[in-house]
Design brief:
By secondary structure, the protein is an alpha/beta fold. The protein has seven helices and 13 strands. Bound molecules: zinc ion (3 copies).
Length: 247
């Protein structure tokens, strides 16, 4: 299985429009602090298929960079703009895309995208389903007040966990699914020291990974409030855009 971090930024991305902080300056110079909004591409063994987890507002550039003209499915974790708004970029590129989400999330997103007609698959949390030879299980996390799920992807013996946007208050039933992942992509919007009510900071995400026995942790959904990427990397395992992890 191959996992590509198409976008590791938070809702506003880095650089933030108009900001000249160290991370934004690095991003403007083309450094790795530059972050598109959140999307992850998961590819199954032996090229059986591709699944997009979330469709960020930057999706067009992400698909161009990876030369992807079609996918076998799209999974939406929640109905926040930075996680679905780029879906329209499929329009006239790929029709009838299979899309998967909880019912409430799906209702909200397809209302916004009323002019598109993807193939809707309402799924339930904790009930596995299959796309392109990979098994996916959505599990509830805590991102108040919005219904939000993380995603467990299983392909052969490998397990990948994507927390989506969440605080540390993850239900026990979900934590059980998240244990011993070969790779975890975890929301860590800010370094420690900020008061967060909807997200984890880097320290919390690292504690979660340790508690769950995660083999490889990459932090994502990152804001411009970190130091520039190469400096921040000395303290936290930050992912970067277009990072590929082969499992
Ligand atoms: Zn988000
Ligand atoms: Zn900035
Ligand atoms: Zn969110």
């Amino acid at each position: 299985m191959k996992v590509t971090l198409l976008g590791t930024g938070d809702a506003i991305g880095t650089p933030k429009i108009g900001c000249k902080c160290p991370a934004c300056s690095d991003a403007l110079r083309g450094g790795r602090s530059r972050r598109l909004r959140f999307s992850v591409l998961v590819e199954s063994d032996e090229d059986e298929g591709k699944v997009l987890i979330d469709t960020s507002p930057d999706l067009r550039w992400q698909l161009l960079k990876k030369d992807i003209a079609s996918v076998d499915g799209v999974i939406w974790t929640h109905a926040h703009y930075d996680h679905y708004a780029g879906f329209g970029d499929f329009h006239r590129v790929q029709r009838h895309v299979d899309v998967y989400a909880l019912k409430g999330t799906m209702d909200y997103i397809l209302n916004y995208l009323y002019f598109l007609k993807p193939l809707r698959h309402d799924v339930s949390a904790y009930e596995p389903f299959e796309i392109a030879g990979m098994e996916f299980t959505l599990f509830r996390v805590d991102h108040p007040p919005t219904e939000t799920v993380g995603v467990l992807v299983t392909n052969g013996s490998k397990r990948v966990v994507i927390t989506s946007d969440t605080t540390l208050e993850i239900p026990e039933e979900s934590l059980d699914l998240m244990r011993n992942a070969d790779l975890m992509l975890a929301d860590a919007i800010m370094p420690p020291g900020y008061n967060l009510t909807k997200h984890m900071n880097a320290q919390e995400a690292m504690e979660l990974a340790r508690m769950l026995g995660t083999k490889n942790l990459q932090l994502t959904h990152l804001s411009h409030l970190y130091p520039p990427h190469e400096i921040a990397l000395k303290t936290w395992p930050l992912g970067h855009d277009m990072m590929e992890i082969v499992l």
